[in-house]
Design goal:
With about 500 residues, the chain is α/β, with parallel strands linked by helices. The protein has helices at about 5-10, 30-35, 50-65, 80-90, 130-140, 155-165, 215-220, 245-250, 255-260, 280-285, 345-360, 375-380, 410-430, 435-440, 465-475, 485-500; strands at about 20, 25, 40-45, 70-75, 100, 105-110, 115-120, 145-150, 180, 190-195, 200, 205-210, 225-230, 275, 295, 300, 310-315, 325-330, 335-340, 365-370, 390-395, 400-405, 445, 455-460. It folds into 3 domains: about 5-165 and about 200-270, 3-Layer(aba) Sandwich (Rossmann fold); about 175-200, no CATH class; about 275-280 and about 290-485, Nucleotidyltransferase, domain 5 (2-Layer Sandwich), CATH 3.30.420.240. α2 (about 30-35) packs parallel to α3 (about 50-65) and α11 (about 345-360) packs across α12 (about 375-380). The longest helix has 17 residues, at about 410-430.
């Protein structure tokens, strides 16, 4: 028995508490996560709160505590699961402890433990035949440990299915040969084989951002037996972050800070219904007018002026969802041009560049393309032909490092930030969305607990590509007061509000 195995036994027996690893000092919430032994363990909290480091450290420790154990490390897609995990894992795990077999999507540890990277989306979306194949693949595995990053992207049926496959023992002896150790609530924690003396411990560990999905009830409102929820905030990891980063986060909208900085997960964040107020949508509907002209599918609502513009791009595969390009004036807040169609990536690139060249009388517009999923291919296709693409900062929490990448990466946290930015601009009356199809999508854009919608998306049977393209176009655009609503439009807005409410009222224009 090596030192790690002995440490693992002492850890299971409660004789030791892990507080550091490989020179890294864990914060109190990380220590709680690493040392918890509940069968289902979830950490929820703010961005850069240290969830990822605790996640990685626990993978490493359990792999060493229990030789020949079998891990599943999952996320929505296999690429995200592997690339995101390995980037930080390689900086934390001691050299010589593992081999990364990228072609096989797995890690082989020197003591025989194995971790496989899985894309869990195969179990919840796509053709029914593909889902059945994924389910059959899962049934052929028995795991010791399961780790899921961003549980909010995973449906409950997948979580339940994974739980049924977490049953691997450390030895081949029968159940009758096992002594079961239980906690004070009579929950089984681990087993000891009376014949070979090996310890068996199974655990499902996951991370999440606070979001409106099934785990809020499962782990917090009505916690199931043998589950544990640990809630953390960005401030819990303050010693590993720069003051500049913290101050920048504190400038974000209040709703964003509550969830993704302070890590609040409560009923106030579980609001259902429309994302944007009906009054804002009615105000925009009063501004709708036909395009001045249409050129190759591009709708022109205002001819190019000598001012700055910004372009949002929501890509798709072109088969089931349309792609959208929206161009706005940074001075007036007007939507000046849009393009929406079921087309492949190369066509979206062509149309986006065409719009950008049109509206480059004083400067190239900044393009803000979504970089999630198929969006990465869009970004790669844009790079050789356009050189003013949105740059985002990516933080390595535990090492206080940052890198830059192109495009807007959408997850629950960043989508909320995108929405809050748009809400603030609507509140100030800055956006002027002349495109009728975009306005029609606004009142079908709702809060949802569907995993793939990341907290908000179109009602079933509708699309949100124009809304996403619009929000990306307005991303980080400062409010500039330029002009009031035209007089003829003011009267129309009053009429719309009066018809809706059945009374005459002042709508504050």
């Amino acid at each position: 028995m090596n030192d790690y195995e002995q440490l693992g036994k002492d850890w299971l027996d409660g004789k030791v508490t892990i507080t550091t690893f490989n020179g890294l000092t864990l914060n109190p919430k990380q220590i709680e996560f690493v040392n918890d032994k509940s069968r289902s363990l979830l950490v929820s909290g703010g961005m850069s709160s240290g969830k990822t480091l605790a996640f990685i450290v626990k993978v490493i420790l359990l792999s060493q505590f229990f030789p020949n154990s079998h891990f599943l490390i999952g996320r929505k897609t296999q690429g995200n699961a592997e690339d995101t995990f390995m980037k930080d894992f390689m900086e934390v795990c001691p050299a010589g402890m593992y081999t990364h077999q990228k072609g096989y999507h797995r890690i082989i540890f020197a003591n025989g433990s194995t971790a496989e990277f899985w894309g869990l989306d195969a179990l919840q979306s796509g053709a029914s035949t593909d889902i059945k194949k994924a389910e059959q693949k899962l049934k052929s595995h028995n795991f010791t440990f399961i780790f899921t990053d961003q549980l909010e992207e995973i449906e409950m049926k997948v979580f339940d299915a994974l739980q049924t496959r977490m049953r691997r023992r450390q030895c081949k002896h029968s159940e009758n040969d096992m002594i079961v150790k239980r906690d004070k609530n009579d929950n089984a924690v681990y087993e000891i084989c009376q014949i070979c003396g090996k310890y068996t411990f199974n655990q499902y560990c996951a991370t999440t951002n606070p979001a409106n999905f099934w785990a809020y009830d499962y782990f917090k409102v009505n916690p199931r037996p043998n589950t544990k929820l640990i809630e953390t905030s960005t401030l819990d990891n303050k010693s590993h972050l720069t003051e500049q980063f913290i101050q920048n986060e504190l400038l974000k909208p209040e709703a964003y800070k509550a969830k993704y900085f302070y890590g609040q997960w409560d009923d106030k964040s579980m609001v259902e219904g429309g994302v944007f107020y009906e009054e804002w949508i009615l105000n925009q509907r009063a501004l709708v007018h036909p395009p001045l002209r249409i050129m190759g599918g591009i709708r022109i609502f205002e001819e190019p002026q000598k001012e700055e513009y910004q372009i949002g791009i929501d890509p798709s595969l072109g088969a089931t969802d349309p792609s959208n390009v929206t161009c706005i004036s940074k001075r007036s807040g007007k939507v000046v041009a849009t393009y929406t169609a079921y087309v492949p990536t190369n066509v979206i690139v062509e149309k986006a560049v065409q719009i950008a060249l049109m509206y480059s009388l004083i400067a190239q517009p900044l393009m803000v393309p979504e970089a999630t999923g198929v969006g990465q291919a869009l970004v790669e296709a844009l790079k050789p032909v356009y050189d003013n693409i949105y740059v985002r900062e990516v933080y390595a929490d535990q090492l206080d490092k940052k890198t830059t990448k192109l495009g807007f990466y959408t997850n629950h946290a960043t989508k909320t930030q995108l929405i809050e930015n748009m809400k603030e601009l609507f509140q100030k009356g800055f956006p002027k969305v002349y495109d009728e199809d975009t306005v029609n999508e606004l009142n079908k854009f709702i809060y949802t607990d569907t995993a793939e919608e990341k907290g908000a998306g179109a009602q079933k049977g509708y699309h949100d590509d124009r809304v996403m393209g619009m929000m990306l176009a307005y991303w980080n655009v400062p409010f500039v007061y330029s002009e009031e609503f035209p007089e003829d439009r003011k009267e129309l807005i009053r009429e719309i509000h009066s018809e809706r409410l059945g009374i005459k009222e002042d709508v504050g224009l």
